[in-house]
């Protein structure tokens, strides 16, 4: 997931004050929406046809709270696709490029999903609620429709629908303390990607050790949309002694922590092998799954592009920097000629690296080397290879 | 389609100045984006994972230009699903609840699309480019993925992909004059939902007499994303003598003109029979199509809810009004008790009616009568039945 930027936008032409967002019924508010506004929400984006908090006005403070204390995020837009019935496992296994066999009840796996040609169409975590019941906790595409089509056309005996489930994330080094104060010391023993049913003052949720940051914490999968503000305020109150701050998925932290953002990092036409998700695929499993043949062939010939993490030169980028930017390998003459090699998908200041950094999707031939990019303001920046994403 | 409101938002708690939108790579800009900014864009929304113009700062002026002169809209977010190959017609016919047989090359049909349980999942126009080639011009859901799954799982011989096509709409009573000045008098003879290939200074597009208003006009389906600003500026220049204004899908005009907005008017769980699209379905055709059995059963028993157009009491609503709002039938005592009957999905001032109006999705039992609703500010409004939507 990706906050879609955050902060006012430095638009070409110097549009003052950034652009507003129009609200309407086409896009849903989350059960936490009123709490967001009460806590100073300034910027929104849209994710899975829902409003998602982009910023509360101070991206630096949001980053700091996340890596030093604890942060509270409305991630209700991480919708669930529920699959239930005798063939639930068959469907989940067939649509997942990762082997889901052996995933125990109460455990989740990160399982990229590809279309029949091996193109990545989502990168959910799949939660096994029972042997015949799963939640596919999705990134930003309507794989609900896609899973429904596959199930129906194959005649599988399962229901596929969106349940009333709205995750709220508590992330950061003090997240365990906050949730332990709320629910008890037992929560500290919950393993990564382990989950249990829980409740608080009658507010029902599934508590999972997960979340889209590298700082640790939990997601509370609220199962009663009428109780969103109640849950937010209970967690907020428990977090105040620990300096809790409202936030959302955080662009620089998630790149520092090697967390992939479907669409932001790749558009809608990349393969999981291109974007560094190979270790989450089970290409050698015996059973068939959607995209298997295409992915095996791609592994054989090697991916055409690679997603790389780079350091970028230049003065500190602001939260208002827009992307993507073009990328090219300079010509021998050193001038701005040279060959286009892809694009910088995201670029942002990294406190951890004390430098600008970026994620670039570039031709495999040049993915290990330096290249050049240019900001919307026309400044040419040099990009230094830091790592292949996910390696 | 729906602009998602537009204008600054009166949020609960009186958030000043409305909410900003964060820009980032996860959501695409259209080929016209720079032109929008140059022409004073103030508000955006998101549609099909693209930014879409919400307002240029004066909704009244935008309405007036549309109904009295001519308006220019970036509707690139109306993406195309291209289906090409020997089985292209078989796929298009199987996924459309409307019979596509007999649709000639160069003609389009509005063809609602349902899932296997008869729930509306999109309401595209389907354009026949050749006997083996179609564009499905979609509303806001990823039916690209859904169509790909259906084609692959049925083993149909066709490619299903998103081409480089970005519609630009010229709408309003002077739209014909503008487009005739650009391309020639012949455009006046193009029939409704008829289209032809055209070009302007080497900018290639498909010209179709269509658009999401009741004011007449064209959509120019640009087929080279690098030429967006060029095309915008050419049309703009031709429109200046006619008082052209930048705009976008216009909430009050489209309701006055009985144009349905998928999601805005119904959420994601309504049937085409509930929302007044029965006349666009071909339920009695001989061949099977997705959702047919469910829709036939629903027609037999009658839809549970109906979408109705209502007049709403109270002072003029502003463009900042948020919805949906709850709807209920007052109890016998006339107090605010009574029975919940659904919701007002959209509510807006109607210049044509000189009154507030709304679209409400309510229980069939009470859909012909009056009911009551309440604004976020707590004002109770009475709703008077005007028409069943689409009848």
Number of strands of chain A: 22
Q: Biggest interface, which chains?
A: A-B, 66 and 66 residues
**End-to-end gap of chain A:** 19 Å
Could you name the CATH homologous superfamily of the largest domain in chain A?
Aminomethyltransferase beta-barrel domains
Question: How much of the polypeptide of chain A forms β-strand, as a percent range?
Answer: 25-35%
How many structural domains does the protein architecture of chain A include?
3
Apparent shape of chain A: globular
Helix % of chain A is 10-25%
Instruction: Report the CATH topology name of the largest domain in chain A.
Output: Alpha-Beta Plaits
Q: Number of helix segments of chain A? A: 8
- What CATH first level of the largest domain in chain A would be assigned? Alpha Beta
Can you write the helix and strand succession of chain A as a string? Answer: EHEEHEEHEEEEEHEEHEEEHEHHEEEEEE
pLDDT < 50 stretches of chain A: 1-16
Oligomeric state as shown: homodimer
Structural class of chain A: alpha+beta
Q: Mean pLDDT across all residues of chain A, rounded?
A: 93
């Amino acid at each position: 997931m990706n906050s879609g930027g955050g902060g006012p936008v430095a638009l070409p032409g110097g549009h003052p004050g950034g652009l507003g967002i129009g609200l309407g019924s086409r896009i849903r508010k989350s059960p936490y929406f009123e709490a967001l506004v009460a806590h100073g929400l300034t910027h929104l984006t849209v994710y899975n046809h829902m409003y998602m908090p982009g910023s509360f006005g101070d991206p630096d403070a949001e980053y700091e709270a996340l890596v030093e204390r604890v942060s509270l995020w409305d991630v209700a837009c991480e919708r669930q696709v529920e699959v239930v019935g005798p063939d639930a496992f068959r469907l989940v296994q067939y649509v997942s490029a990762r082997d889901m066999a052996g995933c125990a009840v109460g455990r989740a796996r990160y399982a990229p999903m590809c279309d029949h040609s091996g193109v990545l169409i989502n990168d959910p975590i799949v939660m096994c609620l029972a042997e015949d019941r799963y939640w596919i906790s999705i990134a930003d595409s309507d794989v609900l429709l896609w899973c429904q089509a596959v199930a129906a056309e194959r005649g599988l005996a399962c229901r596929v629908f969106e349940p009333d489930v709205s995750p709220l994330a508590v992330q950061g080094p003090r997240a365990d303390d906050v949730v332990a104060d709320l629910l008890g010391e037992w929560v500290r023993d919950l393993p990564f990607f382990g989950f249990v049913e829980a409740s608080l003052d009658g507010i029902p949720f599934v508590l999972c050790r997960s979340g889209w940051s590298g700082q640790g914490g939990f997601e509370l999968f609220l199962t009663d949309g009428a109780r969103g503000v109640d849950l937010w305020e209970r967690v907020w109150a428990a977090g105040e002694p620990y300096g809790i701050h409202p936030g959302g998925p955080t662009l620089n932290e998630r790149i520092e922590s090697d967390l992939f953002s479907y669409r932001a990092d790749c558009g809608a036409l990349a393969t999981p092998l291109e974007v560094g998700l190979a270790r989450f695929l089970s290409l050698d499993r015996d059973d068939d799954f959607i995209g298997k043949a295409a992915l095996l062939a791609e592994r054989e010939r090697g991916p055409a592009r690679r997603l790389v993490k780079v350091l970028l030169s230049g003065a500190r980028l602001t939260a208002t920097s827009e992307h993507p930017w073009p990328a090219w390998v300079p010509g021998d003459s050193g001038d701005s000629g040279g060959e286009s090699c892809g694009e910088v998908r995201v670029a942002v200041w990294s406190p951890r690296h004390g430098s600008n950094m970026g994620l670039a999707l570039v031709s495999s031939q040049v993915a290990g080397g330096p290249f050049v990019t240019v900001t919307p303001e026309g400044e040419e920046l040099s990009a230094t290879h830091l790592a292949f994403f996910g390696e």
